[in-house]
Amino acid sequence: MAKTQTRPSHRCTECGWTTVRWVGRCGECQAWGSVVEVGAPRLAEVRASAPTKRATRIKDVDAQAAARVKTGVSELDRVLGDGLVPGAVVLLAGEPGVGKSTLLLEVAAQWAKAGRTTLYVTGEESAAQVRLRAGRTNALADDLYLAAETDLGTVLGHIEDIRPSLLVVDSVQTVGTAEADGSPGGVTQVREVTGALVRVAKQRGMAVIIIGHVTKDGNIAGPRLLEHLVDVVLAFEGDRHSGFRMVRGTKNRFGPSDEVGCFEMAEEGIVEVPDPSGLFTSRHEEQVPGTCVTVTMEGRRPLLAELQALVGSSSLQLPRRTMHGVDPGRLAMVLAVLDRRAKVKLSDKDVYVSTVGGARVADPSADLAAAIAVASSALNISMTERCIAIGEVGLAGELRRVPGLHRRLAEAARLGFTEAVVPSDSHAAEQLSMNRSGMLIRAVPTLADALCALNMTSRNRPN
Length: 463
Hints:
By secondary structure, the chain is of the alpha/beta class. It has helices spanning 74-80, 100-113, 127-136, 152-162, 187-204, 225-229, 328-341, 367-379, 405-414, 428-436, 447-453, and strands at residues 10-12, 18-19, 35-37, 89-94, 118-122, 144-148, 166-170, 207-212, 232-238, 244-252, 260-266, 269-272, 291-298, 301-313, 321-324, 349-355, 387-389, 392-393, 399-400, 419-423, 440-444. It has three domains: 8-38; 64-274, P-loop containing nucleotide triphosphate hydrolases (Rossmann fold, 3-Layer(aba) Sandwich), CATH 3.40.50; 279-454, Ribosomal Protein S5, domain 2 (2-Layer Sandwich).
């Protein structure tokens, strides 16, 4: 007998994937709670209705109604685009313990100290616990109101009563509503709560900052729709073993989406770091082999980073390759190019590479600095004092041009560096501009030429 073909009865609203039975997670796009039954009752035809307010010419709209307001935390204002736009909804996500609540409590306090009414809603701590942290970090203000609530309706009631100009919700995963299915933190609940906060923010012109959790993979927990609902998405990054923190913009409807702000966790709370370059470099009384400084770009911000390397004889059949703060794949490629193209033999050596200050360097422009640091340690030759190296290393041993070279060199010159090794295909105008400030530019085409320019060749190895 011929088998009857079963028709798919459920469809994913995100990607259109179909299945014969309901599942909680889409098998194609891996979205949670997006699979619905096919053939559900269609919406009735919607008839046109008279608008309550006539459409306005775009030239007649008052632009001052969306004028930015500074938060009082300059590093956060830098990421937001010079302040908060009234009615904007900002999502701040980060790992547990990175300092999200501490940062936004400071923002709420600075906002309130300027005479603006602020409401801080916490669903993870009691009011007394938040008050204790506010006293420790000096985040107390007369116009700062605190509410420990987990019900959306009660939160909206507090907004009606206090009428704040800034609302902070810590966090969206702890707030729920009886109007939606599931428990707080679920896909449906997060979508409903965020949608309600977005609507009230636009109606009142009230800025809203929402704290969001992240998954073990580092992605924002909840539906992907959450990032589309809000106006600004910020990622709060940092190593719990280091006090350095970084706020990175990943979406911004009102400003640049590639800007970063730097902070440092201290005993008195979170402190702004307007000039973070000194955090990622170390001072040596005399030059030692195995160190090299580069300038990376975090968004639009040039930051100095020091890479240190240690090369030693190995007693193992497979020598160790240990690294911290750098991309293992890129470093393995750099070591292979050093061995093959620059004749720095590392096949029987243990190689250890690390950054200073817990910095994470993912910029390809740090390839040349990593290669010079490893070669300096392997050949026991010190790097030239007050010299930086910027360039991407190719598999053929060539040095590739990196973007923003002028800004990188300007930052190095400001911090007292007098010499730089860069790829030779860089714009001559940039090189001449830096020569006017007294900085010596060594433009070289290959990695081997860079080592020769710094007097790091295998023939200089001490006996």
